[in-house]
Write a structure and sequence with these properties.
Helix content is 28%, strand content 16%. With 317 residues, it is of the alpha/beta class. The protein starts with 7 loop residues before the first strand and ends with a helix. The structure holds threonylcarbamoyladenylate and magnesium ion.
């Protein structure tokens, strides 16, 4: 089949090299990660970071996550302690982002962390992005590859939907395994979850032998991604619905719901991980089909269901 997307390139050695060349010249490429697809740029370069903010139309006050291959490079940029090591050993590489104190001598562009004294760091697990990071001598700033406040992309063609040809290179590493953005935990000041994700506060609490709370209302700069309107498909969403009319798209979970033209089941087996993986895909599909309204059933508020509900709540604003 002919590739109708001129800027989507399958993950292989040759295309990885092409991505590397673009990034070294402070250009931007879209990359796969196990959570969602991201827009990557050299975290040391003001020029790259400006490009990312412009492309995404992202408020300058909303800082980016810096992605590393391993701890050795991070040590130049942030202070790390015992608790970080404990979490790192268990959950990284993977869908966990740490807020750490930035070192004054760090070369990370101050535009990337909105001139805060902290930085957000993550070690992604997806093989394509890991291999790319391994070959670079700088970390990558990678926000989700969507226009600010809309739904995050979970496959290469979703990125094309967002940016079209405004971005010259999209590295295709298949579908994102998790489908929701990483858990963000602050280790700077009080330890707490700023954004729920696949790694729950319960799992983290067990490891650190301590009760971990989830930040309810974000103050201005604490985690701007937690500000109310976000992750929005651009049409109204109603939560906790028991039934729906035929005109609205009805997102459901479990076997008890009949199949139907306007019924979108996140997981017939009520598997919350599958539901998370299907959520953004489903929202995107519903929008494309032209529905003007979405109704969704109540999603159990446990495990990754907490993250699903967090995103739905913001999407419904
Ligand atoms: O799974 C993910 O984390 C994806 C993939 C691409 O890695 N990235 C992602 O990035 O979700 P983004 O930019 O869409 O969300 C970053 C979140 C925002 O809520 C932002 O406010 C928060 O991280 N953040 C970044 N730096 C921070 C800091 N220094 N303090 C507090 N929150 C920060
Ligand atoms: Mg985002």
């Amino acid at each position: 089949m002919k590739n109708i997307y001129p800027n989507i390139f399958k993950y292989n050695k040759n295309n990885l090299s092409k991505a590397k060349i673009i990034l070294k010249k402070n250009g931007i490429t879209a990359v796969p990660t196990e959570t969602v697809y991201g827009l990557a740029g050299n975290a040391y370069s003001d020029k790259s970071i400006k490009k990312i903010y412009n492309l995404k139309k992202r408020p300058k006050k909303n800082p980016l996550i810096i992605h590393y291959h391993s701890i050795s490079m991070l040590k130049k940029d942030a202070y790390i302690d015992k608790k970080f090591f404990k979490l790192y050993k268990k959950f990284s590489p993977g869908p966990l982002t740490y807020i750490l104190k930035k070192k004054p001598k760090s070369k990370i562009s101050s535009l990337a962390n909105s001139k805060l004294s902290s930085i957000a760091v993550r070690f992604p697990k997806n093989i394509a992005i890991r291999n790319l990071l391994k070959q670079l001598n700088f970390p990558l700033a990678i926000p989700s590859a969507n226009i600010s406040s809309s739904v995050s992309p979970v496959k290469a063609t979703d990125v094309f939907d967002e940016f079209g040809k405004k971005i010259s290179f999209i590295l295709d590493g298949g579908k994102s395994r998790i489908g929701l953005e990483s858990t963000v935990i602050s280790l700077y000041g009080k330890i707490r979850i700023l954004r729920p994700g696949a790694i729950s506060h319960i799992k983290i609490g067990k490891l650190l032998k301590k009760k971990i709370s989830i930040l309810k209302k974000a103050k201005k700069l604490e985690s701007p991604g937690l500000l109310k309107k976000h992750y929005s498909p651009g049409i109204p969403i109603k939560l906790n619905c028991k039934k729906s009319d035929d005109k609205a798209a009805f997102i459901v979970l479990g076997k008890k719901y009949k199949k139907g033209k306007n019924i979108f089941n996140l997981s017939r087996s009520t598997n919350l991980n599958k539901a998370a993986k299907n959520l953004y895909k489903t929202l995107r599909k519903i929008k494309k089909l032209g529905y003007k309204k979405i109704n969704i059933v109540k999603i159990p508020n446990k495990e990754i269901g907490i993250a699903i509900n967090d995103r739905l709540k913001r999407a419904s604003h």
